[in-house]
């Protein structure tokens, strides 16, 4: 057991992290000239929907990590465990997103004065019981989403404005708190079911177990093709800051100056092509873009590009990346959150097909989450790793960086497993089978497993 002195020193260090990261976050808000927002603000702050905001994100990562670690250290373990076993806020978020409660409040003539739960309930399409709507709103307002103006009277605030149906974030919230959460609740049931526990088939995952009555023998991708997946992915891009991050981090200016007047850029498995769109807008006339995906996503992408940047130099070329290679000889091949969706055997196929299309000067960019273990291995080979937090914070930032680890569990129940040697003696040895037949079965990958994949 640690001494009282060393524990006090760690706690004081955590308090310093909380103070310094709070100062950094406030500074980022003040730089905009709009001041520091309040949770009860009735308008969005300019930074609220800014995809990049990397300095703010880093400050919040440290702040969340330190706050959670401090509470976990000082609270009774039973207090911590019970709180974590009650994710009931998520179904409430699904309810208000699906029923467009934020839209109802936004349209109310009372505005910031709020709307009584009786009126909210009767304004919904399904005319819910007002007392049940009130229970939902009370929990969410207690957690800072919506504002209880007076007893049973609610108004939007800065948090709930992101749930407006015009914001793609609302679709993302509905997906995460609905179907994906339901799939995760089947984790134990699928792991003990004889047909699912050791199956490698795409239609025998934990998510397939959830759908077994509604869509027999369906895979995760069978479901997403029939639902709101594409719109929710736009929201995911905003939440993660994907477009801005790629724009800011990669040395595009250097690439342009060292090659030619323009760059060819192939987005493999593009979806709407959010990153390519940002690049095309920022570097006017400097990118010739090819979006490649299945036909249906490309039709949706055409609509997005025609509205967002109609003069872009962009081609839409259908392709199944498991069966064919992308267009040949591009300067850049970009795969954004593609590899993590597939078991290792399919990921190798995708990357091999890309490699076949590349020239000697082509570059492939994989835009992926890279997980770190809580206590990672030292970087003895000099291959680099994620930025590590300073002690006494957990090296992987703990709760300040928990979202990728949550996604990892989602992928555990929505994808098939990579075969292990114990499963089938006929399967040839592959180091990834050992590297990932534990915590990271077919989910987000660590640095080491990405290296092995190559």
Compact overview of the structure:
Residues 261-375 form the O-methyltransferase C-terminal domain. The chain has 454 residues and is α/β, with parallel strands linked by helices.
Computed Rg: 24 Å
CATH architecture classification name of the largest domain: 3-Layer(aba) Sandwich
Instruction: Determine the CATH topology of the largest domain.
Output: Rossmann fold
| Count of alpha/pi helices | 21
Principal-axis shape: globular
Q: How much β-strand is present in the residues?
A: 5-15%
CATH homologous superfamily descriptor of the largest domain: Vaccinia Virus protein VP39
The secondary structure category is alpha/beta
Number of E-state strands:
10
Which spans of ≥5 residues are poorly predicted at pLDDT below 50? 416-442
**End-to-end distance:** 43 Å
| Percent helix | 40-55%
Question: What's the domain count?
Answer: 4
Give the biggest beta sheet.
5 strands, parallel
Mean pLDDT: 82
- Order of neighbouring strands in the sheet with most strands: 6-5-4-7-8
CATH class of the largest domain: Alpha Beta
Q: What does this molecule look like?
A:
It contains 21 helices and ten strands. Mean pLDDT is 82; it is low at 416-442. It is globular. The chain has helices spanning 4-31, 54-74, 77-84, 89-98, 101-107, 117-123, 130-142, 168-177, 179-185, 187-192, 206-211, 220-224, 229-240, 242-249, 252-259, 274-282, 295-308, 344-357, 403-414, 431-435, 447-453; strands at residues 115-116, 147-150, 153-155, 263-268, 287-293, 314-318, 332-336, 363-367, 370-371, 445-446. 48% of the residues lie in helices and 9% in strands. It has 454 residues and is α/β, with parallel strands linked by helices. The strands form three sheets. The chain has a five-stranded parallel β-sheet with strand order 6-5-4-7-8. A three-stranded antiparallel β-sheet has the order 1-3-2.
């Amino acid at each position: 057991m640690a001494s009282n002195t060393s524990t006090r020193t760690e706690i004081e260090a955590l308090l310093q992290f909380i103070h310094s990261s709070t100062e950094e976050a406030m500074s980022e808000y003040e730089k905009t000239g709009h001041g520091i927002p309040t949770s009860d603000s009735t308008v969005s702050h300019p930074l609220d929907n800014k995809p990049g905001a990397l300095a703010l994100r880093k400050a919040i990562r440290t702040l969340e990590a330190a706050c959670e670690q401090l509470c976990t250290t000082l609270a009774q373990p039973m207090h911590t465990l019970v709180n974590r076993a009650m994710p009931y806020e998520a179904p409430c978020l699904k309810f208000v997103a699906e029923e467009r409660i934020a839209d109802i409040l936004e349209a109310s003539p009372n505005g910031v004065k709020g709307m009584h739960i009786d009126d909210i309930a009767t304004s919904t399409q399904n005319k819910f019981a007002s007392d049940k709507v009130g229970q939902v709103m009370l929990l969410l307002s207690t957690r800072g989403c919506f504002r209880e103006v007076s007893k049973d009277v609610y108004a939007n605030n800065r948090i709930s404005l992101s749930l407006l149906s015009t914001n793609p974030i609302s679709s993302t919230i509905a997906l995460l708190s609905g179907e994906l959460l339901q799939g995760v609740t089947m984790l134990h049931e699928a792991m003990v079911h004889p047909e699912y526990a050791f199956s490698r088939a795409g239609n025998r995952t934990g998510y397939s177990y959830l759908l077994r009555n509604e869509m027999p023998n369906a895979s995760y991708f069978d479901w997403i093709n029939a639902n709101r997946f594409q719109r929710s992915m736009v929201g995911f891009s905003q939440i993660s800051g994907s477009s801005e991050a790629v724009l800011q981090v990669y040395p595009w200016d250097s690439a342009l100056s060292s090659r030619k007047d323009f760059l060819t850029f192939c987005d493999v498995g593009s979806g709407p092509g959010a990153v390519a769109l940002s690049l095309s807008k920022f570097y006017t006339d400097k990118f010739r873009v090819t979006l490649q995906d299945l036909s249906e996503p490309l039709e949706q992408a055409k609509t997005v590009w025609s509205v967002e940047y109609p003069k872009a130099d962009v081609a839409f070329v259908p392709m199944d990346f498991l069966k064919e290679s992308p267009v040949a000889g591009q300067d850049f091949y970009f795969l954004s959150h593609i590899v993590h969706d597939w078991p290792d055997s399919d990921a190798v196929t995708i990357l091999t097909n890309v490699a076949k299309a590349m020239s000697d000067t082509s570059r492939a960019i994989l835009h992926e989450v890279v997980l770190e273990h809580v206590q990672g291995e030292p970087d003895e080979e000099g291959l680099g790793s994620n930025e590590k937090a300073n002690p006494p914070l957990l090296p992987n930032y703990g709760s300040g960086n928990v979202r990728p680890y949550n996604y990892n569990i989602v992928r555990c129940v929505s994808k098939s497993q990579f075969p292990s040697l114990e499963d089938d003696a006929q399967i040839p040895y592959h180091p990834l089978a050992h590297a990932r037949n534990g915590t990271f079965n077919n989910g987000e990958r660590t640095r080491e497993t990405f290296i092995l994949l190559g």
